[in-house]
Design brief:
The chain is about 40% helix and about 15% strand. It is built from 14 helices and 13 strands.
Length: about 350
């Protein structure tokens, strides 16, 4: 088979979709032995990491780069739906689209849907993103032979909210990529002698960080800090930071890996996730995990996390208090989490992807 894959969203570093796209490209380069791949990338100012370019070309795959801004492609493909992607990638058997633009194609089409948050919680999504996703998914409904969903939760949303037939939706859990280099002598400079709770997520309404911080600040303790890793998103998110609540912004993968390894525990209070990358990542590094009992997070966590109601500050606070005090529980969660994280690997993702495309050719 000859397969074209839109990888334009790989440039959004620090986001779930950026990490997913990078992991998928690297998995294809590592595990592919028979099929041909054409990677399509479009951005006005951003570029692909040179090391990834080298990996693609060394494998003998084709990389097509254009300087068309995502907003222009969204208008061209999602709204007017003309100018087939084959004008860029040539003749292929399959086109796999990103979760931003849906180009017309003369080939069979597959797509990847990470979540339907723009439909379930529209107030937590920026208007431009919501409109783009609405337009794109109208074409997905009409044209995609296969839709890969990140979780059973997302599959159920696709079936119930967009009325997409069950046999068109394939659940395929994304893989997670560990940074294996352990840091011993050069510890991350923010880390001090106090233990810390870690959370990762953009500063935007859906991530529910305001409630987490209020729940944390309500605890009668001065021995534990809360570290918040993530870029500024959109919306009016007011974090009550103080000497125990530290906003770290975007950090590199190796520094994030160290924080996963050394935190007292990890917490993700998001209202809704299609997969919840940080939960799976934290478990893989041995961090005990607490997370929301909503959307895919309950599914991804399995029996390897303590769950809470993300809409209830008391529920969050009680779980934080419980995990701070209970070392035995943290040790148990760490072991269970490492076992659970093995279900999320890129080799398995790649195998399901290829098997599904061949079965539908």
């Amino acid at each position: 088979m000859k397969i074209a894959l839109d990888i334009s969203q790989i440039v959004y570093k620090g986001t779930g979709v950026g990490r997913f796209t990078d992991g998928l490209v690297r998995a294809i380069c590592e595990y592919e032995t028979n099929d041909q791949w054409v990677f399509f990338f479009s951005s006005l100012r951003q570029t692909i990491d040179p090391s990834l370019k080298n990996l693609i070309t060394a494998k003998g795959f084709k990389l097509v780069e254009t300087k068309i801004p995502p907003t222009v492609l969204s208008i061209l493909w999602n709204q007017f739906h003309f100018f087939p992607i084959e004008r860029f990638v040539g003749t292929v058997d399959w086109v796999i689209t990103s979760d931003w633009t849906e180009p017309p194609s003369m080939s069979r089409k597959a797509t990847i849907v990470h979540d339907l948050v723009f439909m379930k919680y529209p107030d937590t999504v920026e208007e431009q993103i919501r409109k783009t996703q609405e337009r794109r998914l109208r074409w997905v409904q009409k044209e995609s032979s296969v839709i890969f969903a990140d979780s059973d939760s997302t599959k159920n949303d696709l079936e119930k909210m967009l009325f997409i037939e069950k046999d068109r939706v394939i659940v395929n859990y994304p893989g997670i990529t560990q940074v294996n280099r352990k840091i011993h002598d050069t510890r991350y400079t923010i880390h001090d002698t106090r233990p810390f709770i870690l959370t990762v997520g953009k500063l935007e309404p859906r991530k529910n960080l305001e409630k987490l911080v209020r729940a944390f600040n309500s605890l009668d303790q001065k021995k534990v800090d809360l570290y918040i890793v993530g870029m500024n998103g959109w919306g009016d998110v007011a974090i009550e930071h103080n000497s125990h609540v530290k906003l770290l912004g975007f950090i590199t993968d190796d520094k994030l890996a160290e924080l996963y390894r050394t935190c007292l525990f990890f917490v993700l209070p998001s209202i809704y996730e299609g997969f919840g990358y940080p939960v799976a990542e934290a478990m893989s590094y041995g961090a005990p995990v607490a997370t929301s009992n909503t959307s895919s997070l309950r599914e991804i966590a399995g029996n390897a996390a303590v769950l809470f109601d993300p809409h209830d500050e008391d529920s969050i606070a009680n779980v934080l208090k419980k995990l701070i005090a209970n070392e035995t529980l943290r040790t148990s969660l760490s072991k269970k989490g490492q076992m659970r994280s093995r279900d999320f690997n890129w080799k398995k993702y790649y195998e399901i992807l290829i098997k599904t495309l061949k079965a539908n050719s």
